[in-house]
């Protein structure tokens, strides 16, 4: 999922950074609020798990990789608004220490992992609970589907940067998604369990 350093054109880097910034600001404010701060050890453990899971990279599409996301647990425990701040720290550590992702692609990676994934997980979890699913099942479904949401967002980001000459952005997104599917569908199912 982490788009590699230098893989996106500068205009796309700026666009995704600008799109991610309001979520990071809101997340930072929420992480500083008393209810979240009182659970700081849970928050730290969740951030550590997020770092560990996203560091397990499996080479995928050129310039990217597949891995578990871990964002469903964070979104379910703390709400989706808390996750962009955690994801920002994780992505910075990985870019600087593991050469996984990058500084120029930080905004794009943050938008897919820290925004799309957690909000999808939270909505799926809430819908499953309202439909009568037990929390463990709801968590599993949210984890699996939010992992796929992260990769769908990444496919769209890559397609916007590299549209297919014939089928355009949607055709390119389908191609990127199809390549991701080989590794990410089994990873998502495993993450759900």
Topology:
Layout: H1 10-31, H2 34-37, H3 40-55, E1 58-59, E2 65-66, H4 71-78, H5 83-98, H6 106-130, H7 135-161, H8 168-192
Antiparallel strand pairs: 1-2
Helix pairs in contact: 1-5, 1-6, 3-4, 3-5, 4-6, 4-7, 5-6, 6-7, 7-8
Q: How many distinct folded domains?
A: 1
Strand order of the largest sheet: 1-2
User: Which structural class should the secondary elements be placed in?
Assistant: mainly alpha
- Distinct helical segment count: 8
Mean pLDDT across all amino acids: 90
CATH architecture: Orthogonal Bundle
What is the third-level CATH name, the topology? Arp2/3 complex 21 kDa subunit ARPC3
Segments where pLDDT lies below 50 for 5+ residues? none
Hey, roughly how much beta strand do the residues contain?
under 5%
Give the class-level CATH name: Mainly Alpha
Count of distinct strands: 2
Helical percentage: over 70%
Amino- and carboxy-terminal Cα gap = 20 Å
Q: Main beta sheet: strand number and arrangement?
A: 2 strands, antiparallel
The ordered string of helix (H) and strand (E) elements is: HHHEEHHHHH
Q: From the alpha-carbon coordinates, what is the Rg to the nearest angstrom?
A: 16 Å
Q: Give the overall silhouette.
A: globular
List keywords for this structure.
single chain; 193 residues; mainly alpha; Arp2/3 complex 21 kDa subunit ARPC3; two-stranded antiparallel sheet; 8 helices; 2% strand
General description of the model:
The chain is an all-alpha fold and 193 residues long. It has helices at residues 10-31, 34-37, 40-55, 71-78, 83-98, 106-130, 135-161, 168-192, and strands at residues 58-59, 65-66. A two-stranded antiparallel sheet has the order 1-2. Helix 1 (10-31) crosses helix 5, helix 3 packs antiparallel against helix 4 and helix 3 (40-55) crosses helix 5 (83-98). The radius of gyration is 16 Å and the shape is globular.
């Amino acid at each position: 999922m982490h788009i590699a350093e230098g893989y996106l054109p500068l205009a796309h880097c700026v666009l995704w950074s600008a799109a991610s910034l309001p979520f990071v600001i809101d997340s930072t404010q929420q992480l500083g609020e008393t209810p979240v701060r009182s659970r700081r050890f849970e928050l730290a453990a969740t951030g550590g798990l997020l770092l560990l899971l996203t560091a397990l990279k499996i080479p995928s599409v050129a310039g990217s990789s597949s891995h578990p996301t871990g964002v469903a647990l964070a979104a379910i425990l703390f709400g989706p608004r808390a996750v962009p701040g955690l994801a920002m720290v994780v992505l910075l550590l990985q870019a600087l220490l593991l050469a996984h992702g990058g500084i120029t692609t930080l905004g794009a990676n943050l938008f897919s992992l820290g925004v799309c994934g957690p909000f999808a997980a939270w909505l799926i979890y809430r819908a499953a609970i309202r439909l009568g699913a037990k929390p463990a099942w709801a968590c599993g479904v949210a984890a699996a589907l939010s992992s796929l949401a992260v990769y769908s967002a990444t496919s769209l980001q890559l397609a916007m940067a590299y549209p297919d000459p014939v089928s355009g952005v949607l055709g390119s997104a389908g191609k990127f998604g199809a390549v991701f599917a080989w590794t990410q569908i089994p990873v998502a199912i495993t993450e759900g369990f």
